[in-house]
Amino acid sequence: MKSGTVSSGVVTFDQVWKKFVRGERHTSLRDLIPAAVRSMVRPRSPESLKKTEFWALRDVSFSVRSGEALGIIGPNGAGKSTTLKLLTRIMRPSRGRCGITGRVGALIEIAAGFHGDLTGRENVFLQGAIMGMKRVDIARKMDAIIDFSGLEAFIETPVKRYSSGMNARLGFSIAANLEPDVLVIDEVLAVGDLSFQTKCIDRMQEFRRRGVAIVFVSHNLQAVSALCQRAIFLAGGVKADGRTDAVIQAYVASSHEDAGVKEADLVRVQSVALSGPAGPILNDAVRPGDFLTLEASYLPRVSVQDVTFEFQVYRSTDNLFVHGSQFTGADLGVALEEGREIRIGFRFTANLTSGHYHVLTRVWDNLKQAFLNDFSPPAVFAVEDKRTWAGVAHLGVVAELRRDLHGAVVSDASLD
To answer: What CATH number was assigned to the domain covering residues 11-15+56-252?
Structure first.
């Protein structure tokens, strides 16, 4: 993303930089005095760093308006949690400005702000007071908070006795039930059980419809895809910003960007290209049942007579292994000759439900029982299907009302 002042919103992050210092320390006057002198006599540019410093965030800008949900994705150490801590004023930026307008419901670290010796109920009052609510308003919401958390049996227990999952339940329940204008949620939902995570996503979707601004950090790309219309791929700086499906595709492609070109690979995957009924697949989604073709180009660095080509499909949002196929050189009538490039097309049917997927391929030496290369760069695609709501396989289910009470044939409904 280019630098520049962002548009106004209830959440603002404008040209923010955040610097941290590594754990190295000066252990003697011999080290400390020269370092102090250098800092006085050598002016530094705004972007320069001392030996022990590093930028966790570099020139990051975005805004979120009421009723919008922004997902922030990226690898570990990308600056996602730092971004949320800056937004909620747990930290201050080194440069730039950031802030939130209105009441904030935040769940950034498990039990952050909880007092271990206080009971769950007492901590609800404590967190409500921190959010600026009156005691009578908190008391009015208490039953809803306890019911949502499912902790009725433990609400009078000191939270130091809670598990991480119980802390997450109570923390989210407080953040989601005290009428926030902005909801800021970090990866901590991952510690909850599946049913509670689903419950949380449903509540966040409800908030979005009611006009609450949401900033959601998660490695669960499926949840980000379901909740957020817009996402940011963060890795120190903003690598991609836009429609959620396009940003997820950029993130998945980046996570595999070095595949196929490793020096140790005996067979290099020169290129992969995915095409559908209308030609090359770029950002357009395909429909369940569409025929797709992956064309992969291989350049052998050795000659191998007996090989197997692997074809694998994954759901990108949770890296779920969806399908795998194998084709031997005998099946295809081909052997690998050193320096002779070959191309293989894998044609398949996208019998998949809505979601983001990627296709990989690699080569196996049947005699040496070893892979000749790492996975290829991914070919990424999205499936659009408005009828099914769960699972991976699109089964083309047909629902039929065979006869009404009077015995007449009425209608049927198909998911095709």
So the answer is: 3.40.50.300
Domain boundaries, the chain: 11-15+56-252, 262-383
Residue 310 identity:
E
Query: For 67-122, what is each residue's pLDDT tens digit?
Result: 999 999 998 888 888 998 898 888 899 999 998 998 888 777 655 678 999 999 99
Q: Is 262-383 a domain of CATH 3.40.50.10490?
A: no
- Based on DSSP, count helices (H) and strands (E) in the chain, helices before strands: 9, 20
Ranges assigned E (strand) in 208-319:
213-217, 230-235, 237-243, 267-276, 279-280, 291-300, 307-315
The token pair at 380 is 């990424």
* Selection from 144, 162, 145 nearest residue 154 by Cα: 162
Q: What is the spatial distance between Cα 22 and Cα 55, in angstroms, rounded to a whole number?
A: 11
Model pLDDT for residues 386-410, shown as the tens digit of each residue: 777 778 999 988 888 877 666 666 5
Buried b (16+ CB within 10 A) or exposed e, 22-44: eeeeeeeeeeeeeeeeeeeeeee
Q: Give the Å distances, CA to CA, from 324 to 126, 150, 166, 290, 331.
A: 52, 40, 38, 18, 16
Per-residue three-class SS string for 108-177: CCCCCCCCCCCEHHHHHHHHHHHCCCCHHHHHHHHHHHHHHHCCHHHCCCEHHHCCHHHHHHHHHHHHHH
Q: And the tokens for 118?
A: 């206080």
